[in-house]
Design a protein that fits this description.
The chain is α/β, with parallel strands linked by helices. Helices cover about 35% and strands about 30% of the residues. The structure holds adenosine-5'-triphosphate. The site of adenosine-5'-triphosphate has 12 residues, from strand 2 and helix 1. One of its GO terms (cellular component) is plasma membrane.
Length: about 240
């Protein structure tokens, strides 16, 4: 059963200087699962992802990826270990082409990506196909998000962590994007999805966790969480 678990955070505490943000956070992502991490503005969701990624140093606790401890190691080594973060705001290189942006995802890989990998990504994200040679800065917000996810997939992630991919996108685009995320999960990509829009995320995720002021206050199967009106009202602003 150990090998079914891809990512485990145990008793994770982290913050910025004297400001403690995360308190004793436990969270598990199993292989092939999509897990949603929910919570209001400022609950600590980005801090959690940034701690997983090595951008924020944990004060205490453990982070285990595929049976290897990764807490406190350098961000590039965490990328090499297979934990890939698609950050909030997507970090697009606007003057590079879409193709170049996507290829950057492979820069820590030992093997050069095969042409068939790009082809598979373009089948997954057909909107990007016609834009491959265009500067990424000309894409719409939703297309840029898709490109950022394609870049993350190019890294061959053990776990793909997404920080608020729906932020600022039109509802139709969010629906399209989340349908693609569900397809990726169905194909075996392990996903940790951070979102403020609880009902949206719980519609596609397998399980969810609710973060409130840096503590996990609820967890469970997505179906159960999304039917818990009191929980959604109390912690998630009814969204
Ligand atoms: P949001 O959706 O607004 O990003 P979040 O749940 O991701 O919310 P965080 O961004 O992790 O929350 O923020 C958690 C707390 O940490 C907030 O009180 C925030 O002000 C604080 N914080 C975030 N980044 C820093 C930083 N670089 N230095 C100091 N405090 C920070």
């Amino acid at each position: 059963p150990g090998e079914m678990v891809t990512l485990v955070a145990r008793g994770l505490c982290a913050g910025y200087g004297a400001a403690d943000v995360l308190h004793d956070v436990d969270l598990t992502v199993k292989r092939g699962e999509m897990v949603a991490l929910l919570g209001a503005n400022g609950a600590g969701k980005s801090t959690f992802l940034n701690t997983l990624s090595g951008l924020v140093a944990p004060g205490s606790g453990r982070i285990v990826l595929n049976n290897t401890n990764i807490e406190g190691i350098a961000p590039h080594r965490i990328v090499e270990a297979g934990l890939i973060l698609v950050p909030e705001g997507r970090q697009v290189f606007p003057d590079l082409t879409v193709e170049q942006n996507i290829e950057l995802g492979a820069y820590r890989r030992k093997s050069r990506p095969a042409a068939s990998e790009l082809e598979a990504l373009l089948t997954r994200f057909p909107r990007l196909r016609d834009r491959l040679k265009s500067p990424a800065g000309l894409l719409s917000g939703g297309e840029q998000q898709m490109m950022a996810i394609a870049r993350g997939l190019m890294a061959q992630p053990q776990v793909l962590a997404l920080d608020e991919p729906s932020l600022g996108l039109a509802p139709a685009m969010v629906e399209e994007l989340y349908t693609i995320l569900a397809e990726l999960r169905d194909e075996g990509v392990t996903i940790l999805l951070v979102d403020q829009m609880a009902t949206l995320a719980l519609a596609v995720a397998d399980r969810g966790y609710v973060l409130e002021q840096g503590r996990i206050v609820a967890e469970g199967k997505a179906d159960a969480l999304k039917q818990n009106d009191a929980l959604i009202k109390a912690y998630l602003g009814g969204s």
